[in-house]
Known about the structure:
Structural class of chain A: alpha/beta
Distance between the termini of chain B: 31 Å
Strand order of the largest sheet of chain B: 2-1-3-4
Helix content of chain A: 25-40%
Largest interface: C-D, 51 and 44 residues
CATH topology of chain B: Rossmann fold
CATH architecture of chain B: 3-Layer(aba) Sandwich
Number of strands of chain A: 8
Shape of chain B: globular
Oligomer: heterotetramer
Structural class of chain B: alpha/beta
Number of strands of chain B: 4
Strand content of chain B: 15-25%
Number of domains of chain B: 1
Strand content of chain A: 5-15%
Number of helices of chain A: 10
Order of helices and strands of chain A: HEEEHEHEEEHEHHHHHH
CATH class of chain B: Alpha Beta
Largest sheet of chain B: 4 strands, parallel
Radius of gyration of chain B: 17 Å
Number of helices of chain B: 5
Largest sheet of chain A: 5 strands, mixed
Amino acid sequence: xxxxxxxxxxxxxxxxxxxxxxxxxxxxxxxxxxxxxxxxxxxxxxxxxxxxxxxxxxxxxxxxxxxxxxxxxxxxxxxxxxxxxxxxxxxxxxxxxxxxxxxxxxxxxxxxxxxxxxxxxxxxxxxxxxxxxxxxxxxxxxxxxxxxxxxxxxxxxxxxxxxxxxxxxxxxxxxxxxxxxxxxxxxxxxxxxxxxxxxxxxxxxxxxxxxxxxxxxxxxxxxxxxxxxxxxxxxxxxxxxxxxxxxxxxxxxxxxxxxxxxxxxxxxxxxxxxxxxxxxxxxxxxxxxxxxxxxxxxxxxxxxxxxxxxxxxx
Amino acid sequence: xxxxxxxxxxxxxxxxxxxxxxxxxxxxxxxxxxxxxxxxxxxxxxxxxxxxxxxxxxxxxxxxxxxxxxxxxxxxxxxxxxxxxxxxxxxxxxxxxxxxxxxxxxxxxxxxxxxxxxxxxxxxxxxxxxxxxxxxxxxxxxxxxxxxxxxx
Amino acid sequence: xxxxxxxxxxxxxxxxxxxxxxxxxxxxxxxxxxxxxxxxxxxxxxxxxxxxxxxxxxxxxxxxxxxxxxxxxxxxxxxxxxxxxxxxxxxxxxxxxxxxxxxxxxxxxxxxxxxxxxxxxxxxxxxxxxxxxxxxxxxxxxxxxxxxxxxxxxxxxxxxxxxxxxxxxxxxxxxxxxxxxxxxxxxxxxxxxxxxxxxxxxxxxxxxxxxxxxxxxxxxxxxxxxxxxxxxxxxxxxxxxxxxxxxxxxxxxxxxxxxxxxxxxxxxxxxxxxxxxxxxxxxxxxxxxxxxxxxxxxxxxxxxxxxxxxxxxxxxxxxxxxxxxxxxxxxxxxxxxxxxxxxxxxxx
Amino acid sequence: xxxxxxxxxxxxxxxxxxxxxxxxxxxxxxxxxxxxxxxxxxxxxxxxxxxxxxxxxxxxxxxxxxxxxxxxxxxxxxxxxxxxxxxxxxxxxxxxxxxxxxxxxxxxxxxxxxxxxxxxxxxxxxxxxxxxxxxxxxxxxxxxxxxxxxxxxxxxxxxxxxxxxxxxxxxxxxxxxxxxxxxxxxxxxxxxxxxxxxxxxxxxxxxxxxxxxxxxxxxxxxxxxxxxxxxxxxxxxxxxxxxxxxxxxxxxxxxxxxxxxxxxxxxxxxxxxxxxxxxx
Lengths: 314, 152, 348, 280
């Protein structure tokens, strides 16, 4: 990954020196293992802070909303798709952006790795295909592909879809079945589904990390904060919690790129992607749509075809 | 359970299905009385929040009806609505609401017969499912416990 | 000071004896994470843990708590009048709470138990609780309790301290409440105070040595509040923040709450829910004006409150026990240790 | 142990629409349990939480004076969920009142001259203060009393009958103003509050305190005028607003620095505010 980092630094330094942009949005080294912190860099001297490795799972498109200056942003496949969505939804202008594309081999799942060890992990390093985990009295090397975030495992757009610079050569895309888990739930009876999601959501503390980590969630007033009328209660009542998750997901219908930011951000480890993935699957099956691939197509809920499927309507 | 009467909320478009309801009434058609009608300006105005709010407050079934594709008073409101409905219906059924709870239809203001037929279908589908078992907001356990302990 | 030892073979038996007299709460593993949970009869707390994912604050200060109930039915003689509800404040015991979490209740108590106003809900729950601490000998890499006025064997806020010594616990009984608890369990193997104290002191030194990270707080008290508030470092700190409430919800010392009314048909409740200074709605005026409108202002509020306003108000502390949860669970790696050091060393 | 979150039940006795836009109504409330009135012992400048079952609570300044017995009054602007509901209520309806809350300035003001400067609907607690000071038993405790009160138009002035009555007295100097009017009958000032303050307010001295309550923009432009008139910053008392919930300094949202506006305020001297973060 160090070659990615040095290439990113090199491009960033050049862009700042040539005054092509005022700010670079990227990552700096985190203070704990398997975490990096989104950051901004405004001078060529500070470019040294930037890093790239398998802990850059945050979707940086989240930091673009409403910015006014000329920006260079580092973008994995999913980030680039959300940048496209942001441009389509007028949250940022294409002309403002210089996109430094990063062909992405997936981000590692911190929760999964943490749960593999009883003792505290003190240090994690990586080397091409391998992740080495060290802690008090243990050291273990893992295959990176075994510990990827769930969304990265099934990612079919690892290369950025839109970019001005590239931090590395493009890579082969995967051919995978994206919806095995969704189909499993679809096959359940209503009763089973209900209790499945009750269990899934029972740890939720309504902190809204899933919502806030999502680059799609930029409404000035979220529906959970509306008071006249109040659509959803603010307690941890299971009915309210479920309604929150349902509406949050539905609000991302046809826009979600499955970047995994929501799931990664959840402090309770809830698989919140199970909601958005269902919508993603339906958008693909009903409307042939994948979010964030093109600047020239309107998202599925912003358009229609006269012959859209309607067998569910009497 | 025999005496149980379902509570169904019907969201009807002002320009078509609402008129059909009127016509069905004027024509003295017989249909079940379990639907509470809320008039909406267009099926395109229908927000998923309305459906969730009705379900949270205890509706046993929900029925949304608008103009036939191509006949929207606002040209294309129902086309957009159709996509929203498809995704929404799939999502709430995926989360465990039974398929017979949420219904959609296209009924023009002249189709009083269809109106009566659909309201029959909706009502019998909801009746067949019985009362909702989940997802109705009730008073929290703590309050229930408090009442029990006060009664002791 | 009284010391006893509990043979681990008689641990379950003692808890069984306590069961009728106390509601027992302890760490339980669920989905690879530990949480404090009420123990069913026969259920044992799982002490094989670093720290619980969430702090046990919710056992005294629930995330959602009913304050009052009322009827909106005009046929009801007392309609629209708020009434108190009957609450369960029977004795409860938090078994295996870490010293940092126990210390947090002492900080929070300053907020809920003031000379002018007493928050009955918090105080009643707090007073009905026994804090049976578990000394910490396996800290996380994010722990910095020793520099946050606390420590792995810290006793403030505890009624008794359990120290794990292989096949037995050494128990240091710290309060009469703790004494009653031990007696009720029927554990009675007295231990020699001097010898026990010595063993514990040795273990404590070892445990403290393991705590690798720290914060510097010495200069915070004398720093100018206005200068820190106007500090130039806030934009950099706040950039990554996504304004979720995770840090505040997992924090044992965050106490802010919101009050809401909820109505079902003709009856309603007034409840309070945890709230967070990270949310814009927290300070939004009715007019639409918001004194903390930007993300940076909200992030600044959180750190200034913990590390400066609290110090200004009470003349000591920081409002933090160094449990490290906010560092572990922040989705974007904002680290209070870093912020604290920046503030402590800021010369603006 | 008294539960500080439990409101006293009160009955709405009378509702008066105060302004021509009908957005301000005064609610005269009577305690359902007479003993609660004794417990609710307040001073002008304090506020209370009005509680509407099913909607919530809002902090509102007390508009009546403790010298007026048998009722309390609140003038409420229609803004959000609770106030909209209050505006739709009728006499006889039951609500709740929790308080009194916040601090008051009367230990400081005793024996002094007082300059009251108010704008818009923030005049409520100032009305309370004026009624309190003009009470025959209290008037001797104060020297000169000046009142500068402005609203957008004559129809937007609160308590118009009382203003007219105070105008005719010689133990209080009234300077009523409106931003503008085409009413030929209008016989008072026309101009913004800062301008009228500059023209009419007495200069500052150690025996004079200014009491300001109004919208932020008015405060912003009045403050330099008071500086010019020689009012010392520790003799200017301002009332702040914040979103509040508990009202007793516990729920955590209304702080400015270490001070909670609900409990340590809402009144602060300008000298105090100068040493607090500008986050209000």
